[in-house]
Amino acid sequence: MAKFGKQRFPAGYQSSVGMNGRETLHENSRELVSILKTNKILDSNSSIFELGSGPARNLYYIYNEFKTDKLYCSDLFLQSSYDNMDDKLKSVVTFYEGDSQDIIDTSVVKDLDLFLVSDHFMHLQYDKADYIIKKIISRWKPTYIMLREIKKEFETPNHPRLFHNYDQFLSDYEIIEENTSKQDNAYFIWLLKRK
Hints:
globular
């Protein structure tokens, strides 16, 4: 039976995806930053939120590149995430502890430039991811959205790594860059801009 949330990702999981995570994960983060840099959508005044960030490895690379301190993120375990987070980042990031659906309902960051979701939607149940996507579009309304998620043909429901209906973003957003991840061709990357 597929497990989700804290059953699938206990607090100890953060040590494998934080700053001491394997090099491939750091390459994933650098790839996302490279796309953001090429598209010139962020600067030192940009506000960024990452849903399901773990120890905010992606935000660490974004912070180093763009020098913005308007950084927000969420995950299930605050202390474990902080224990595996870069020390400089700890002093600038605002961290929301909780389930992604609860965060989406309660912690709206106003005037958000970028909403980032990387390797996270795939770990959520179909109905939960659908609910969150709809709320991002209707309530959060960021200027840009960046996704790095599993492709449909690589979905493994029992693992689980689930593919969701990302096309619903296209009602309010347009794709300005679409790639297959250089680290793993099972993943796509979308950079979306609000219409």
